[in-house]
Design goal:
The chain is an alpha+beta fold and about 625 residues long. The chain is about 20% helix and about 20% strand. Strands 5, 6, 21, 22, 23, 24, 25, 26 and 27 form a nine-stranded mixed sheet that branches.
Length: about 625
């Protein structure tokens, strides 16, 4: 991360810390606040990013899905800018290449207990001490005591204000302590903690004037905040802009988990052709098509100079040139097909259920179905290599976006989506991970018959009514995913818990993708996978669990564990209609998984759809 020292991007940019590419999508993306040891910074909008060192990632399916969200002006997906570090030159040009950030919140507090001065960072009271050897130790200091590096550190103010429309702003300290009354420009503030608990009731804002009393921060939190805080100014600090906003601001603690929610789209990279070299050439065709117009000897000289050559070099120049000719002439087997950009799951379903394939980023092989589960399980596929590419297309604050939107394209109205740039973006940041997984395909006839069971129909009615109540409470119109989805989703969660005990990866490291669709092109399957950034893949601990010898017993153990929960009978008898919940018999003790694992935020789960639980009600898929 690099920060502009004087407010504009220049050669004086200061390196203040490091982030992984995947963190820029999941945790500290555009508009998010990153907490460093002594600084708090916000990742700036895409207008401020330098693209010279930001590699383009070819993934046409994902690009099409992003365009369906943000518009046709989006030209490409890019990795964050990066240049390898030079350990012999801490201040070289490489140190000024990175993700641009700016100090936020803009108010700082002196940590000296005798001072506690609260003032804007640009007020002239605080001084920035850079550290080129240890960038994360860069800090502001206050000259109220001592001198040099012994001066007390000035840390970010603990509170900011935000609104559901995605705006965030500095907390209105002057307005708050003066109860909204006019005040002069010469007033000075202190933020004082009384007591040792650190809770808001013990934090007071004090003004140097004699007209106002110190005010506790407890008055700015909760229902009372609407009466003491001003309306939202519509500020986007990452863009440096203001816009009209009618929302009421809320006080938010710095670093609160609801301060930033990513809006992402994710796809698995699928082969474009049966032949790996044809598939690779099709993937990079936008950059290679110029070579198709050159004589072969000239193209041979130019090919190694292209940016995609590292991905093609393993095939050799002659094979790549032959593939370019085949692609140009349109006679290669498996030409790139036009795909529906709104349907991310459909092509992946066809790839996982189709013939076995072996490509550098997608390798699928068949495995015999365990004999004890052939009545409902049609296919077991071992996904030995896969590549997932994620793109960030927006974010929200206070309220999370609808879970599940990461796998759906389309112009869905997302009123609380904050922009990544001040104008329509021409690119979006992305990250790629590689890993492995296990794909299970349910028997379609068995699933369709189960859906018509009267007990299942009755339970589906209860869950659907609870979903409608949940939507009404939040004034949203989210789609009901169907009872088939709830079945597959619940089964994926019980398997994640069982696999985590055997595969060597933590449960939070195992992700899921649910393929559930009725109608003319039905789907009924799940993919459990693990993937890691900054590496060539994972170690195979998960894919080995899919062998015929092990999978059957693991499924049996998972279903047996699902019968009883440590919170029964409360969990088994949970009525989703009572409070408008999106889950039936499910809780933290039996089914809930980490956010990194679940694609639906632990919604749409119900053990009762799998097995007979403590409630004794029939209708479980594996008990009929």
């Amino acid at each position: 991360m690099t920060s502009a020292v004087h407010g504009s991007r220049s050669a004086s940019d200061l390196r203040v810390g490091e982030l992984r590419p995947s963190q820029l999508l999941h945790t500290y993306g555009v508009g998010a606040v990153a907490d460093l040891p002594n600084l708090s910074v916000m990742v700036l909008g895409l207008d401020e990013w330098e693209l010279e060192q930001a590699a383009i990632v070819p993934e046409e399916r994902l690009l099409a899905a992003v365009r369906s969200k943000l518009g046709p002006q989006v030209q490409n997906l890019r990795m964050p800018p990066y240049t390898p570090e030079d350990p012999n030159d801490f201040t070289g040009a490489w140190s000024r290449i990175g993700v641009p950030v700016a100090v936020f919140p803009g108010w700082l507090r002196c940590t000296d207990n005798r001072c506690n001065r609260l003032a804007p960072a640009d007020s002239g009271l605080f001084h920035l001490l850079p550290n080129s050897v240890a960038p994360d130790q860069t800090r502001y200091v206050h000259s109220c005591r001592d001198s040099g590096r012994r001066r007390p550190t000035a840390v970010p103010a603990r509170f900011v204000s935000a609104c559901p429309a995605g705006h965030v702003d500095d907390f209105p300290w002057m307005y708050f302590v003066h109860r909204g009354a006019p005040h002069g420009a010469d007033h000075t503030l202190k933020l004082v903690e009384r007591g040792t608990t650190g809770e808001a009731a013990n934090i007071f804002v004090e003004c140097s004037c004699d007209d106002v009393k110190a005010r506790s921060m407890a008055e700015a939190i909760g229902l009372r905040s609407e009466m003491v805080l001003p309306a939202c100014r519509g500020r986007h600090p990452h863009l440096g802009t203001f816009e009209l906003c009618t929302e009421q601001t809320k006080t938010m603690a710095l670093g609160a988990t609801n301060g930033w929610f990513a809006m992402q789209l994710r796809v698995f990279s699928l082969p474009h052709a049966e032949n790996p070299v044809d598939s690779a050439v099709a993937e990079h065709w936008s950059g290679l098509q110029v070579l198709a117009q050159l004589p072969r000897e000239s193209a041979r000289l130019v090919l190694p100079t292209q940016v995609m050559w590292p991905q093609l070099e393993r095939f050799g120049a002659d094979e790549v040139l032959d593939a370019i000719v085949r692609h140009r002439d349109g006679d290669q087997a498996g030409a790139v097909e036009e795909e529906d950009a709104l349907d991310i799951a459909g092509p992946e379903w066809l790839a996982f259920t189709g013939p076995p394939q072996s490509h550098p980023d997608f390798s699928v092989s068949s495995e015999p179905v365990p004999s004890s589960h052939r009545g409902w399980l049609d296919q077991v596929r071992l996904v030995k290599r896969l590549r997932e590419v994620s793109a960030l297309y927006g974010f929200s604050r206070l309220d999370a976006p609808e879970w599940g939107s990461a796998t759906r394209g389309g112009p869905v109205v997302e009123e609380n989506r904050a922009p990544l740039s001040s104008s329509a973006p021409s690119w979006v940041p992305c990250a790629e991970t590689r890993g492995e997984g296990i794909f299970l395909r349910f028997n379609e006839q068995r699933v369709a018959a189960w859906e018509q069971d009267p007990d299942v129909v009755r339970r589906a009615g209860t869950l659907k009514a609870a979903h409608q109540k949940w939507c009404a409470q939040r004034r949203t119109s989210a789609d009901w995913p169907g009872i088939r989805y709830v079945l597959l989703h619940t089964f994926a969660h019980v398997l994640i818990r069982e696999f985590a005990l055997e595969c060597g990866y933590g449960a939070s490291g195992i992700g899921e993708r649910i393929y559930a669709r009725s109608g003319d092109d039905p789907m009924a399957g799940i993919l459990l996978y693990t993937a890691a950034p900054d590496s060539e893949g994972t170690l195979g601990g998960l894919v080995t669990l899919g062998s015929q010898r092990r999978l059957g017993s693991l499924i049996d153990q998972a279903l047996e564990a699902a019968r009883l929960c440590g919170s029964d009978p409360l969990c088994a008898d949970h009525n989703p209609l009572a409070h408008g919940r999106l889950h039936g018999a499910a809780c933290h003790a039996c089914l809930f998984a980490a956010e990194t694992s679940c694609e639906r935020g632990n919604h749409f789960l119900d053990r009762e759809l799998l097995v007979e639980t403590f409630s004794g009600r029939p209708g479980g898929f594996f008990t009929t």
